[in-house]
Design a protein that fits this description.
The chain is an alpha+beta fold. It folds into 4 domains: about 220 residues, no CATH class; about 160 residues, no CATH class; about 220 residues, no CATH class; about 130 residues, no CATH class. The chain is built from 30 helices and 21 strands. The strands form 2 sheets. Strands 2-3-8-5-7-6 form a 6-stranded mixed barrel. It starts with a helix and ends with a helix. About 45% of the residues are buried.
Length: about 850
């Protein structure tokens, strides 16, 4: 009976409008819409990748091999399975213009294709022409096309000549787009397209050269793609073959999109948590304004359950309204802005209304609203009617009864579990939720400390009435210390953490390069070239260090006789081919952590020294066996030792080092890292490239710049998410300031009656806001620094340095925002007539 009565009373009470719940609704709408927008864009990209999978891949399926061409058996299988086949060779080289000291060189990713390329889609060139015309041989010189970034770098125009290795080409056109560009993944240099048959005299594809072959298949009409994939994997996976098909034509892009969207949704969840603080403040303020209504109902016989149900239904209805508005906004914005978003995306996307991300956002919104409204609602249950007429809610117990606490904790646990499920990353979710809870606790303690310190400091400020009034207002709670700390502080904490993480990632990638990173990586150094290569560098006084090692590539196919990915999951070491070297003696800079190095001249069964940290992650132990496929040949080796490998220095590091006899006879080349003064880098590149045209030089600074560009896009996306949290925090701050306007009216009236000027009262209000903003900014900075340190240390495993410009902006932002909010809501108290305000409080 009480529920029906409560529902009728709630409906009547809502007829008066939602004036006290504008901030409440705004927080829910903004938080839910953010999560819905991110999820909708993610679904649009996933749908686009799935729909355009074959076009993105350049065929229905692809078989990829590392540093070798397909064997006769593999070619026979492809010929019997595919209706059309196209062979591609992908490798890095140096594009050279001119000769001698005047020559100009740039790193390029060469894509050598056959006449059948592309099986699907079309290469768009500038000036427009068929690809066959761009490759045509004229006057004995084959043609080529390259990306504009490379032609501009080398100052090349169509008709100009350049060299790849020892083969000269004529640039016929620049590449505007290629259909399988996304499937190629990240490249260290712009691409050059040539016919593979024109590379015969280039000297680039020698035994041991680092290259990848890709065989694109177009399957017959009606072929079962899944069955074909299973058949290929069962026959060739353990020969080092890697399979990709149109079901996921650009797996790298799909994985990146999924991980980025998961992170952005968690950032959006942080914004929703900020909004939850606003929800709680709005509910508390609303209930405080309803004390007379509640008292009247209690006097007329309404029990505690009816009162609770009345306002629970009211707030529940408003929560549903806010969530629905957020879903409408989150669903429509991506569709309406589809042309703009598509223009910014490097991947295909199909924008529509997707129920799954909207449902996810709705669940987040419902649980957040429930958690943050139940607490203040539960506190009204045990308040007696006689105490409800004035400041009743502030006299209630701060903690609700234990059934409500258990319910809140259960809802919080459900929220965390669903966030882990939706994001697909339990670790990232737990870090995010833990950071939010820690920040809320820290900010709550800071609010209490601010009130205590203000109470202590207020009597000490003599001769400065504005400051004393400001401190007195903070100490008594009239300054809104608690809502300001939680709302603005949490938003600033998220923004602070994102800024520090972004800054530290950039430092980790590009900071202190002259001290820790080599100038160049040189690859594809042939066995008969390594002595001359070392001689050129040994005689150069500007070269401080040269490290070289034989280089092979192999795929770990089995661990202790079991398929590697079944044992190690999706660990990066077993996902693709890995660098392998061999060494007779233990290198001077290598430290073993377990096991022993093989003896000189060892010719027994193959042995491996494995990177210690990666071995621990894979669960490997001394004596375990690894089957490594090198150039199509399986080598089963026993782990003899573990050693330290530091990949963070951008220097040379191999996960696996084998004894020389185990890979005797396998074609391979050498890789070298050169540490030199920056002024000598150009001369080193010129001399090495002139003497050995097949050697490829990768300038570390250029590679880091390309990686930094990718990181910049990620930082921009996360900053937008963090900015949403800050905007929500500002809305909550506005709500808290509006809720405290009644107290400021009375305070201003009393001060004016006692002779205070309007300017002095305004100055007091602004000081109060500035002090709270400074404290909120400082605490947010501390929480953000702590969170960023934890993420950098335990998630990204990088060092941590405080990025001071970002840090100081956080504190300044807190002061500016709270002062602005205080100024907005200061005019009405100053303009009100003191007599009218004081008579109304009697």
């Amino acid at each position: 009976m009480s529920l029906r009565l409560a529902a009728r009373l709630a409906r009547r009470d809502l007829r008066g409008g939602v004036r006290g719940f504008r901030i409440f609704l705004a927080c829910l709408v903004l938080g839910v819409a953010t999560i819905a927008i991110v999820g909708s864009v993610r679904s649009a990209i996933q749908t686009g990748l799935a729909r355009e999978g074959a076009a993105l891949l350049g065929g229905d399926a692809e078989m990829r091999f590392t540093y070798r061409f397909a064997t006769d058996a593999e070619r026979d299988w492809m010929a019997g399975t595919g209706a059309e086949i196209s062979e591609l060779v992908d490798f890095r080289s140096m594009a050279v213009v001119g000769s001698g000291d005047a020559a100009d060189r740039a790193l390029t990713q060469v894509k050598a294709v056959d006449a059948a390329y592309p099986l699907l889609g079309q290469v768009v060139l500038d000036p427009p022409m068929p690809l066959a015309d761009a490759f045509a041989t004229v006057d004995g010189l084959p043609g080529a096309a390259m990306e504009r970034a490379l032609s501009d770098r080398l100052n090349l125009n169509p008709g100009d000549r350049f060299r790849l290795g020892e083969q000269e080409f004529v640039l016929r056109a620049t590449i505007r787009s290629i259909p399988d560009g996304l499937a190629d993944g990240f490249a260290l240099g712009p691409r050059t397209l040539v016919l593979s048959g024109d590379l015969g005299s280039s000297g680039l594809l020698q035994p041991g050269t680092l290259f990848t072959t890709k065989y694109r298949l177009r399957l017959p009409e009606g072929a079962d793609l899944r069955q074909t994939a299973d058949e290929a994997k069962s026959q060739f996976t353990e020969t080092g073959m890697r399979w990709t098909d149109a079901r996921n034509g650009a797996p790298g892009i799909a994985d990146f999109t999924r991980r980025l969207s998961a992170f952005l949704i968690l950032v959006g969840l942080s914004g929703l948590a900020v909004g939850g603080v606003g929800v709680s403040v709005a509910v508390r303020t609303y209930l405080a304004d309803k004390t007379a209504t509640i008292a009247t109902l209690r006097t007329l016989g309404a029990d505690r359950r009816t009162i609770f149900q009345l306002y629970f239904l009211q707030i529940g209805a408003l929560s549903l309204l806010g969530i629905v508005l957020g879903l409408v906004l989150g669903g429509l914005v991506p569709v309406l802005l589809a042309p703009l978003i598509t223009a910014q995306l490097p991947v295909p996307a199909v924008f529509a209304i997707y129920p799954a991300p909207l449902g996810e956002a709705a669940i987040y919104g419902l649980l957040t609203a429930f958690i943050f409204t139940l607490w203040p609602l539960a506190r009204t249950e045990d308040i007696r009617a006689a105490t409800l007429f004035r400041e009743a809610l502030s006299q209630a117990s701060w903690f609700p009864r234990w059934p409500y606490l258990l319910t809140i904790l259960a809802a919080l646990g459900l929220l965390v579990g669903l966030a882990m499920w939706f994001s697909g990353s339990a670790r990232l979710t737990l870090w995010t939720i833990g950071g939010l809870c820690g920040a809320l606790v820290l900010l709550s303690l800071a609010a209490g400390a601010a009130r205590f310190l203000a109470r202590v400091a207020a009597p000490l400020v003599r001769g400065k009435p504005a400051m004393r009034w400001a401190l007195a207002a903070i100490s008594t709670g009239r300054g809104g210390a608690f809502p300001v700390m939680l709302s603005l502080g949490l938003g600033l904490s998220v923004l602070s953490a994102v800024g520090q993480i972004d800054g530290n990632l950039r430092v980790a990638i590009s900071g202190n390069l002259p001290d820790v990173a080599p100038s160049y990586f040189f690859v594809d150094i042939q066995k008969d070239q390594i002595d001359g290569f070392n001689a050129r560098l040994d005689e150069d006084p500007s070269v401080t260090r040269v490290e070289s090692a034989p280089m092979l590539r192999g795929v770990i196919t089995r661990i202790n006789g079991q398929p590697a990915q079944e044992v190690a999951g999706n660990h990066w070491v077993v996902r693709g081919d890995r660098g392998i070297t061999y060494a007779e003696a233990l290198p001077k800079t290598t430290r073993l952590t377990a096991g022993e190095w093989w003896t000189a001249g060892y010719t027994g069964p193959p042995l491996i020294s494995f990177a210690a940290e990666e071995a621990e992650e894979l669960g490997l132990h001394l004596g375990d066996t690894l089957t490594v496929n090198i150039l199509g040949r399986d080598i089963e080796a026993t782990i003899a030792s573990f050693r330290e490998v530091d990949f963070s220095t951008a220097g040379m590091g191999f996960v696996m080092t084998m004894n020389p006899a185990s890979v005797a006879g396998a074609p391979h080349s050498y890789i070298a890292t050169v540490y030199a003064e920056e002024r000598a880098e150009a001369a080193i590149l010129r001399d090495v490239a002139s003497a050995y045209p097949n050697i490829t030089a990768i300038r570390v600074r250029d590679a880091i710049d390309r990686a930094s560009d990718v990181l910049a896009g990620l930082a921009t996306a996360t900053s937008y998410g963090a900015g949403t949290s800050l905007l929500t925090g500002f809305l909550v701050l506005i709500g808290a300031a509006a809720a405290g306007q009644g107290a400021r009216l009375y305070e201003a009236a009393v001060l004016r009656t006692l002779g205070a000027t309007r300017g002095l009262i305004l100055w007091s209000f602004l000081l109060r806001s500035a002090l709270l903003g400074a404290v909120a900014g400082a605490i947010a900075l501390s929480a953000g620094l702590l969170g960023a340190w934890a993420v950098g240390t335990f998630v990204f495993e990088t060092g941590f340095t405080i990025i001071w410009p970002s840090a100081l902006m956080i504190v300044a932002g807190g002061v500016i925002v709270t002062t602005a909010a205080g100024l907005i809501f200061a005019w009405r108290p100053l303009a009100a007539r003191s007599a009218a305000v004081l008579r109304a409080r009697e």
